[in-house]
Amino acid sequence: MIYGIGTDIIKIERVKNVIERWGDKFLKRIFTEKEIIYCYRNKHPYNSFAARFAAKEAFIKSLGSKKDISFSEIEVLNDTDGKPSLIVYGKSLKTLEGYDIRKVHLSLSHDSDYSIAFVILEK
Question: Which CATH class is domain 2-122?
Answer without folding.
Answer: alpha beta
